[in-house]
Amino acid sequence: MSHINIDEPRWDQSTYEGRAKHFLTITNPLNLLCTSGQLENAKDVVSRYRKGEELGLSEDEIWKAKSIYDSAFHPDTGEKMMLIGRMSAQVPMNMTITGCMLTFYKTTPAVVFWQWINQSFNAVVNYTNRSGDSPISVQQLGTSYVMATSGALVTALGLNSLVKSLPSLIGRLVPFAAVASANCVNIPMMRMKELQDGVALHDQNGNKVGQSKKAAKWGIGAVCVSRILMSAPGMVLPPIVMNILEKRGTLRRLPWLSAPLQVGLCGVCLTFATPACCALFPQKSSIAVSSLEPEVRDKIRQLPDAPEVVYYNKGL
Question: Sign of dihedral through CA atoms 52, 18, 71, 202?
């Protein structure tokens, strides 16, 4: 068997289908069930295979070990990540939090509590998945956390006061508006260093050719769009279903059904929406050199064999 490059995704990342398969593997909640022994075994397999050792494993077994390793260990530091901060925890954690935000949205204490829980979880995820090369400072993390939580609460409480006289379905959609606004604050704040210094640009051979603030803005904008769309199915479809059940009197007869049903609906939506929306934009995004800032563009064009297109890491 020829040597596999396990440092690149298994599937073609230039196609939407390949990206969707890649993220479906990364976000697989079943990886949370792996024991410490299985995680250490996967780490050992990946480490030894990278050194070129012959392990006597099939290609599928090697990729399986790699997917388990990626689900639990930080890509830069190699340290085991906090359980709830792993990408494989996204669906079970978000379905629980989102379902509760949609269920308990009418009273101020409930809104404050669940928006705080949601932003606290986001902070844990951001810290757990921080870059090993450009780590998030405690001050940056704290500022982002406070601003995102404040933005979500202002949006949720403000809209709640405005929609009291409107149809109940509109009120049920307020949590989605709050989460969307928080994403638009949280993501740029967490990546402020890229906005200030620019994101690294590479040619097709992986050679660094410059830094661009404009590419950083495009990448962060794409992440904001994908995060909002990722949350949309789980925060829009359940309210519609619950509104129908409310009109039919089902929720009056079975009031206990509201929370578990919404959590379950969110889980179904997030299972597919998370990888589907992560895959909307290529992780390795491209930008024409002619579209870059003048000083960056001129510097690149002075290089021998200057590229017409450069690439950057969009982020997640």
Answer: positive
First to last CA, the chain: 33
pTM (predicted TM-score): 0.79
DSSP state of 255: G
> How many CB atoms are located within 10 Å of the residue 227 CB?
21
96-151 residue pLDDT tens: 998 898 888 878 898 889 888 988 888 888 777 765 555 667 787 788 788 878 88
* Interacting residues of 145 by C-beta distance below 8 A, sequence separation 6+: 119, 120, 122, 123
Sign of CA dihedral 133, 191, 78, 27: negative
Are 73 and 79 in contact, with CB atoms under 8 Å apart?
yes
- Reduce the DSSP state of residue 42 to 3 states and report it: helix
Q: Where are the beta strands (DSSP E) in 219-308?
A: 284-288
Cα(42)–Cα(101) distance, rounded to whole angstroms? 36
Residues 6+ positions from 112 with CB-CB distance below 8 Å: 153, 157
Q: Look up residue 27 and give its two tokens.
A: 């976000």
Check residue 134 and give its pLDDT.
Answer: 58
* Reported confidence tier of residue 62, pLDDT bands at 50, 70, 90: very high
Q: What is the dihedral of CA 37, 42, 43, 46, to 10 degrees?
A: 160
Q: Alpha-carbon distance 92 to 271, whole Å?
A: 9
Instruction: Please tell me the distance from the alpha carbon of residue 226 to that of residue 232, in angstroms, as a whole number.
Output: 10
**Largest Cα span, the chain:** 74
b/e sequence 250-289, b meaning 16+ C-beta within 10 Å: ebeeeeeebeebbbebbbebbbebbbbbbbbbbbebebeb
